[in-house]
Design goal:
heterodimer, A: 210 residues, mainly alpha, 70% helix, globular, B: 367 residues, Ubiquitin-like (UB roll), Rossmann fold, six-stranded antiparallel β-sheet
Chain lengths: 210, 367
């Protein structure tokens, strides 16, 4: 069996590179997983207070999303789909993501202690980030994706999540909490701000059509 | 039906496959080779396998660091100074460290992983900590919920300790308890009899270790413990000493009083024992004997909630109130407290309110 690295969709403009670029931009901007689907909210709300930690978590999420999307694509295409047990995708994806994060944690700890301590508790937190599972599941609904498309789709979503948490951290650092009514401090005001950012992101949908 | 079997088979195969990948990854990725641990500026050095926690690495070399939670990072007892090689402080250690300790490089040894060579400091007295094999000699009911357990040492055959110190008893895996845990108990034995170790153990409802002691332990049962630990002990001085402890908090004082009798210590000493009712009192005869053997010792039990049927002519009320009534002025006295954190904090309040300087108050908190 050969892996179809890319399946060109009929009607899509340009060659493979253009198609991948569009998938990436669409995933990162118009279909931003955090701002349009509100997935991965718990860590988004909890960690977005500071730019440094947001960057750490965001990069980790982006990396894991990219790689697990590709792995899960292969698992779906060569294990669950041929055996006719696609209904197992959900649970298998969870297990794959958990195992991948475990291995990644061990590898980072072994080879880059500095990065390990910088990411610290974020890596285990990623295991239960629903955005990552969401990306793998949404990928299955996309017609005609090959391995490259899956990889780029994962990367786009991951970068979109990173972008969203960085935007929020930038805003929250400037926010003077004492001027906000007590009941709205913390998570409530963050949710309101993410709603406004999400409205802004609708502007991208006119830019990329896919 | 076939779909069902395929589904179950697929899922199992994937899980087993991933587990194997994880096992292999752990084998190769978590292999840190041999690491050298330098202790106290080179006075000792160890060559250990990397990848394990510092606490376990030291335990494997028979250096026992006190730890009550078994390495979960919850008790905060296994603190050590790590001079180099420990990496940054982890979020799990943060709540247990003060600002001073963080500056001095103090870490929880159960959370520090040995990844490279380490340079650490261990208090000298911990080197005298040993692991002891013993067997239960007698078990005596003192009250309905407190037992005196006397262990006969097997190997090593003798224990040297300072009265007031404690040991950690190992409670093996049993019933619903999947792994051995350690619990701290003060020694109540006479230091002149180093071949035995004695403890007072009060049943904690649903407590893992005390339930094991009360249901499984019988004369002849082999047990393991390590120790001695702790710096609760008698301090020099000439003024009156006030001991305060209820329940199994009496243990260190049994040992301290025995040593005082041995030395003919003439210091005026009063022991306030707080209990609810007559049925909570114990070892009264032994305390009587101490009163007659020591030049100036009195045992003062006080009941806070005596039963209507109790014939009681002694002190009544909370132990803090009783102590307060006895001592309007505590300026030139020393206090030794043993018990729960709440009881100790309440006593410190009363004593310092009556002028006792904080450096004259010594305590052993049962956490």
């Amino acid at each position: 069996m050969t892996v179809p690295l890319a399946v060109t969709t009929p009607g899509a403009p340009g060659g493979l590179a253009a198609q991948l670029l569009i998938i990436f931009l669409a995933a990162a901007l118009t279909d931003n997983i955090l701002l349009t689907r509100f997935l991965g909210m718990c860590s988004f709300l909890a960690i977005s207070r500071q730019m440094k930690t947001s960057l750490g978590l965001g990069v980790a999420v982006a990396f894991v999303t990219t790689v697990t999307a590709a792995i899960n694509y292969l698992v779906h295409r060569y294990i669950t789909a041929p055996l006719g047990v696609e209904f197992l995708d959900l649970i298998v994806f969870i297990v794959v993501i958990a195992a991948f994060v475990q291995i990644l944690e061990m590898a980072v700890e072994r080879f880059s202690p500095a990065l390990y301590f910088a990411l610290g508790i974020f890596l285990p937190l990623i295991t239960v980030n629903c955005a990552i599972l969401g990306v793998s599941l949404f990928m299955l609904n996309k017609q005609g994706y090959g391995l490259w498309q899956a990889l780029v789709y994962g990367a786009g979503n991951g970068v979109g999540w990173l972008l969203a948490i960085l935007l929020m951290a930038g805003i929250r650092q400037k926010l003077k909490e004492d001027k906000i009514p007590a009941g709205l401090r913390g998570a409530p005001i963050t949710l309101i701000i993410s709603g406004i950012i999400a409205l802004g992101f609708i502007g991208f949908s006119g830019m990329v059509k896919f | 039906m076939t779909t069902f079997l395929i589904a179950v088979g697929t899922l199992c195969a994937i899980c087993v496959g991933l587990s194997l990948v994880l096992v292999v990854a752990d084998r190769y990725l978590s292999d840190y080779g041999r690491c050298r641990i330098t202790i106290n500026g080179g006075s000792r050095s160890l060559d250990v396998r990397g990848g394990q926690s510092l606490l376990n690495a030291l335990g494997g070399e028979k250096i026992f660091i006190p730890s009550a939670c078994g390495g979960r990072g919850t008790c905060g007892l296994c603190k050590l100074r790590v001079r180099s090689g420990g990496g940054p402080v982890l979020p799990t250690e943060d709540p247990h460290l003060t600002a001073d300790e963080r500056r001095d490089g103090v870490r929880l040894s159960c959370q520090v992983k040995v990844r490279n060579d380490l340079d650490i400091e261990i208090p000298e007295h911990l080197f005298s900590v040993r692991e002891f094999a013993a067997s239960v000699e007698t078990m005596e009911d003192l009250t309905y919920d407190t037992k005196r357990v006397r262990l006969a040492l097997v190997a090593p055959p003798e224990i040297a300790f300072v009265p007031g110190q404690y040991i950690q008893l190992q409670c093996p895996a049993y019933g619903d308890n999947p792994e051995p845990v350690y619990r701290a108990y003060s020694l109540s034995s006479d230091p002149a009899d180093p071949r035995h170790a004695e403890m007072l153990i009060r049943l904690v409802p649903k407590g893992i270790c005390t339930t094991w002691v009360f249901t499984r332990l019988k004369p002849g049962t082999p047990v393991t413990f390590n120790g001695p630990y702790g710096d609760f002990r008698l301090h020099d001085g000439t003024g009156e000493m006030i001991f305060i402890a209820g329940g199994s908090g009496m243990a260190p004082f049994c040992s301290i009083l025995a040593a005082m009798r041995q030395a003919g210590n003439p210091r005026p000493t009063r022991y306030f024992f707080g209990a609810k009712a007559v049925r909570d009192l114990f070892l009264l005869d032994e305390m009587k004997r101490f009163e007659s053997d020591l030049p100036d010792f009195r045992f003062i039990p006080a009941l806070s909630a005596p039963d209507p049927t109790d014939l009681w002519n002694g002190e009544r009320g909370l132990i803090t109130d009783v102590v307060g009534r006895h001592y309007p002025d505590c300026r030139d006295k020393q206090a030794y407290l043993c018990g729960s954190p709440g009881m100790i904090d309440a006593c410190i309040n009363v004593l310092s309110g009556r002028g006792m300087p904080p450096e004259n108050i010594f305590y052993d908190k049962f956490a």
